Design the sequence.
């Protein structure tokens, strides 16, 4: 509970009684707060507050000063004032032990209360995360390892063997230079990730200096100067952290807004969702993935079954066929570099190759991937290793317990995206060169210089 300083005491007492009255007869009452009523003073605020507590069978358990303020006078003398404004208030007959913690967390001393008769289930706020340490140093070491490694990319070998050899060697090097590590996080690490071990150690020094200054073993100015310096360093660390986050995700507008929302909006607690089957029964956790797979893999067959039969063959729609033949010219390193540099940031998850690593080693891997593409195209082969992806169900709308209200999003290997995009670019260049697609076709195409046609133009075109 918090009372704003210098507000109307009678209004506070009235609201306090409104809250406590329905609770005191049926529940144990424990109130922790900064009441901004100094119990060391003999004034009307203290008297009214004590009468209020007594009438509700409540007592304060903290009896020492909870805030000590210091100031320097014009003559250089340092004076301090002690107030008792924070407290833990309980019913008068509850067994307890309470006190103050001598620590400089804020200008108020932390207070504690132990109630042996009250049992609270302890919640484990710590969680263990796995991560890969992707930094400029580790990326540089990986780049050097790629340069030193001999890859067998002979066009005389079977394409599946050539790609598997490259893929396995690349993954081994990746795992060696970006190994999976574990870290235990608590809620403080998640809330303030810019607080590193160096700042934590300096905070301990600050707390020790405060104790020494409080006991007058050192000058108060020494503590104050160090505290101000640490505050400035913490603010700079916070600013640097967000600057790095924004720079790292400068090409990912979704992630950028996620960072902004984490700062300006409170985090919502995640709710557990129980999936229901067709009969309305709960699906066991071990079978949730099966439920989603069964639904997602049946969508295409269900939609196909609903299509009406048509007497018109698909070839009947192909008019004015182009006489030119598309020939896949061999890919070169420049083709691959262009695609790699256009890859969006995909994070640094433990089960995927980071696009930032591919961009960092672009000069080294582009010739290798170009040779792989040429071997695969020449032999009409697409690697089996790239046909597997991680599918994530994304909620659309409606009941969250129903699988049909989710859509699948598949995360593919960046190598799959690179091969696909190189082939796509060569095909679209051919299509655009010979104007195979209508100029009124805008979907899934690059933005053209001409302006969008008006609805009337489109109608007349399709009626012609």
Sequence:
């Amino acid at each position: 509970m918090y009372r704003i300083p210098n507000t109307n005491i009678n209004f506070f007492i009235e609201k306090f009684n409104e809250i406590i009255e329905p609770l005191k007869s049926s529940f144990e009452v424990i109130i922790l707060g900064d009441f901004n009523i100094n119990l060391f003073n003999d004034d009307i605020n203290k008297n009214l507050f004590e009468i209020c507590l007594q009438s509700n069978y409540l007592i304060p358990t903290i009896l020492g000063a909870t805030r000590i303020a210091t100031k320097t006078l014009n003559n250089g003398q340092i004076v301090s004032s002690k107030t008792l404004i924070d407290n833990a208030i309980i019913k008068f007959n509850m067994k307890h032990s309470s006190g103050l913690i001598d620590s400089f967390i804020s200008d108020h001393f932390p207070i504690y209360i132990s109630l042996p008769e009250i049992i609270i289930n302890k919640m484990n706020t710590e969680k263990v995360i796995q991560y890969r340490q992707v930094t400029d140093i580790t990326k540089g070491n990986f780049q050097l390892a790629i340069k030193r490694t001999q890859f067998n990319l002979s066009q005389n070998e079977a394409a599946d063997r050539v790609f598997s050899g490259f893929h396995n060697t690349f993954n081994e090097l990746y795992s060696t230079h970006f190994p999976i590590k574990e870290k235990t996080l608590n809620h403080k690490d998640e809330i303030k990730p810019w607080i590193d071990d160096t700042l934590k150690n300096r905070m301990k020094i600050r707390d020790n200096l405060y104790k020494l200054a409080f006991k007058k073993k050192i000058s108060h100015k020494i503590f104050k100067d160090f505290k101000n310096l640490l505050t400035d360093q913490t603010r700079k660390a916070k600013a640097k952290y967000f600057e790095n986050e924004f720079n790292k995700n400068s090409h990912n507008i979704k992630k950028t807004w996620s960072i902004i929302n984490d700062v300006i909006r409170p985090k919502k607690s995640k709710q557990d969702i129980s999936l229901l089957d067709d009969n309305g029964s709960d699906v066991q956790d071990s079978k949730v993935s099966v439920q989603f797979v069964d639904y997602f893999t049946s969508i295409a067959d269900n939609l196909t079954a609903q299509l009406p039969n048509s007497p018109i063959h698909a070839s009947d729609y192909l008019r004015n066929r182009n006489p030119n033949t598309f020939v896949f010219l061999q890919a070169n390193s420049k083709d691959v570099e262009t695609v790699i540099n256009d890859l969006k940031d995909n994070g640094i998850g433990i089960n995927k190759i980071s696009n930032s690593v591919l961009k960092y080693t672009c000069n080294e891997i582009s010739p290798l991937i170009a040779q792989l593409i040429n071997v695969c195209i020449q032999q009409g082969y697409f690697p089996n290793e790239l046909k597997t992806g991680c599918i994530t169900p994304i909620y659309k709308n409606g009941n969250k317990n129903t699988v049909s209200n989710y859509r699948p999003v598949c995360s593919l290997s960046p190598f799959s995206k690179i091969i696909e995009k190189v082939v796509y670019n060569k095909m679209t260049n051919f299509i655009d060169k010979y104007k195979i697609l209508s100029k009124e076709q805008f979907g899934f195409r690059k933005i053209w210089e001409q302006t969008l046609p008006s609805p009337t133009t489109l109608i007349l075109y399709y009626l012609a």
Notes: The radius of gyration is 34 Å. Residues 71 and 79 are 6 Å apart (CA to CA). The domain at 9-114 is CATH 3.60.10.10 (Deoxyribonuclease I; Chain A).
